Amino acid sequence: MMSLTGQHPDESVIWRIGTHSFELADHVEWDAHSHDDQHELLWGTRGALTAETDDGYFAIPGSLGLWIPAGVTHRVVAAAGTTFRCTFIDADIHPIASRTTAVAIPEVVRAVLDRLEAPPYLSASPRVHAEELALSLLEPVEVSTIDLPLPLDMRTRLVAEALLSDPADDRSIEDWGRHVGASARNLSRLFVAETGLSFSTWRTRARMRRAIEWLAADHTVAHVSRRSGYATPSAFVQAFRRELGRTPGEFASVRNEATKKSA
């Protein structure tokens, strides 16, 4: 394929939308970056794909896409075995949303975006109409997300990364202090200073962040509650509702309704 936005192979058609497909054998992380001249749409996910921006942390299910406006700094992580598509849209096209947001992607949009990449390539007028059709059918939807600032101090960062890797790790702040070479009091102060959250609140949000990812991948509430470090599903449900304003079941219902819009 040519550059994502530029000239069609026949040198006469301007491509304002272009899509890359990814099939990843290994875990891949794209460090924080932005595209000043392009909006970005992540979609067609199979596996675990997450993105983080100033607007929150998003787990992207296969039924939905994620719109990232031009200029928005974002970090993307894909688990081993994940496949997805990434569509870039010229920034001079009016964005469907000014913030990072989940979008319903109907089957017709998926088909049109795929057709735009397939030979024989469309000539100028049909391509413009196809691009406009695809964008007009993208619809923002509400999904649960969570704000989780990451600390910069090496000691607190080690704790944070360990808890994100294994949110079921229930070591106390005293235990973590011994592990990273800091007193519990100092570690507690560092968490508040660098994230604005107490250690216990930060850990709860870390658990919820991973829980959203696993729920989006269609794991059961019982499975997610265990992996998130809760003794019982009911304890997990209470914590989830407290942090996100809805139960895991309601989270699934909202996602299912959004999925219907994508059908």
Layout: helices, strands, pairs:
Elements: E1 6-7, E2 14-15, E3 17-23, E4 28-33, E5 38-46, E6 49-53, E7 56-59, E8 64-68, E9 74-78, E10 83-90, E11 101-104, H1 107-116, H2 124-136, E12 139-141, H3 154-165, H4 173-180, H5 184-195, H6 199-216, H7 221-227, H8 233-244, H9 248-262
Antiparallel strand pairs: 1-2, 3-10, 4-9, 5-8, 5-10, 6-7, 6-9, 8-11, 11-12
Mean pLDDT: 88
- Measured distance between first and last alpha carbons: 28 Å
- What is the tally of helical segments? 9
CATH class call of the largest domain: Mainly Beta
- The helix/strand order is EEEEEEEEEEEHHEHHHHHHH
Radius of gyration: 21 Å
State the shape: elongated
Q: In CATH terms, what is the architecture of the largest domain?
A: Sandwich
Question: Structurally, how many domains make up the residues?
Answer: 2
Tell me roughly what share of residues is in helical segments.
40-55%
Q: What is the percentage of strand-forming residues?
A: 15-25%
How many extended strands? 12
Query: According to CATH, what is the topology of the largest domain?
Result: Jelly Rolls
Oligomer: single chain
Largest sheet: 6 strands, antiparallel
